[in-house]
Amino acid sequence: TQLDISKAFYSYRTLIIDLSVGLDVVLSRISGRARTAIRKFEKCGLLVEACQFQFLDKAYEQLMQTYERASQPVPLSNEHFFALARSKEYLFLTSSKNDQLLGFGLFSLEKDTAIYIAGASSISGRKVNVGSAIIFAAMKSAMKLGCTKFDLGGLGVEGIDKFKLSFSENTHSFDFFIFSIFPVSLLRKRLS
Q1: What are the backbone dihedrals phi and psi of residue 70, each rounded to the nearest 5 degrees, phi first?
Q2: Alpha carbon distances (Å) from 4 to 71, 76, 185
Q3: Do the beta carbons of residue 119 and residue 129 sit within 8 Å?
Q4: Are 115 and 108 in contact (CB under 8 A)?
Q5: Which residues share a beta bridge with 103?
Q6: What is the pLDDT of residues 16-75, one digit of tens each?
Q7: Bridge partners, residue 113, by sequence
Q8: Phi/psi at 157 (nearest 5 deg)?
Q9: Is this model's pTM higher than 0.90 or not?
Q10: Do the beta carbons of residue 3 and residue 164 sit within 8 Å?
Q11: Of all helices (H) and strands (E), which one includes residue 7?
């Protein structure tokens, strides 16, 4: 059988926060803008809560709107998003007021690292800096669960990158190849 071997080179840039230094040090390393945003959210008397699944539909709608504003495709289907949010290996955080979703964050829990997967907020949520509060709440939850690193989930969307850079400027780059091998006959069947 003849094989077709293809490879692709990828470069992945992300921001990683060292949680092992403790909450006070983590907070001191966050930009002044983000610290002020977190305090503003707290002064409003709002909370960030885990597992508020009644907001899944609205959360996905907010995610779609965020990517539409950035002229980017949504990276997750709604079915995939719902499955991840309900999984025990993920942390789904929300904030709401008067039964209206202000914003959400979805985080993967991988061994010693929490990874930001997706997040978005409503116009009302952006006014009270819900995104910053959710990221900070996720860091605190990750520390309680034994995570020593917090990965802000990659860079590459300008408006979202600006938000993420307010938490850390500690950029890490990972370069890698992905190889795939297909029998040529199978590849021809898929293409026809």
Answers
A1: -90, 5
A2: 34, 29, 9
A3: no
A4: yes
A5: 95, 121
A6: 999 999 999 999 999 999 999 999 999 999 999 998 899 999 999 999 998 888 888 898
A7: 110, 149
A8: -120, 110
A9: no
A10: no
A11: strand 3-18
